[in-house]
Amino acid sequence: AMEKQMRAEREKREAILRAEGQKNAAILEAEGLKQAAILNAEATKEAAIREAEGTKQATILKAEGESQATLLFQRAYADSLIMIREAAVDQNVLAIKSLEAIKDLSNGTATKLIIPTDLAGIGGTLAALKEAANIIPTETK
């Protein structure tokens, strides 16, 4: 009877130890899954932050590039105006440039041209229009 009782006691301890082992294993597995989920979430967050920072930096660099391009264009335009002023352009050069501008305008798709009369006087404008009208038919042939 004592032997049966000792065997029962051992089996009981064995069952308790086995149950505790399974319990600990389940707890450790759950903690591992939890830790993995946390690390995955942190990695996703970090990737999103870095991607946003990259997009931000790219946008800033693009805007700075466009700003520099605009500034360079404006400087070149200002320099060209200074060069024209320093060239001391006379009326003959202005008349030739007016004809070239009218010729370029007449090659466009516009159906009406508005030319200021103070440009070279009304007579000069009419002469320029006549010259432009004479140029157009010969170029289209």
Topology, element by element:
Blueprint: H1 2-86, H2 91-106, H3 121-140
Offer a quick outline of the entry.
The protein is mainly alpha-helical. The protein has 3 helices and no strands.
- Which percent band covers the strand fraction? under 5%
**Can you give the helix content as a percent range?**
over 70%
Sheet with the most strands, sense and barrel status: none
Order of helices and strands: HHH
Over all CA atoms, what is the radius of gyration? 44 Å
Secondary-structure content class? mainly alpha
Total strand count, please? 0
Overall geometry comes to rod-shaped
Oligomer: single chain
- Segments where pLDDT lies below 50 for 5+ residues? 137-141
What number is the mean pLDDT?
82
Report the total helices: 3
The first-to-last residue Cα distance is 128 Å
For this entry, give a set of tags:
141 residues; 3 helices; mainly alpha; rod-shaped; disordered C terminus; 86% helix; single chain
Plain-language structure description:
With 141 residues, the protein is an all-alpha fold. It has helices at residues 2-86, 91-106, 121-140.
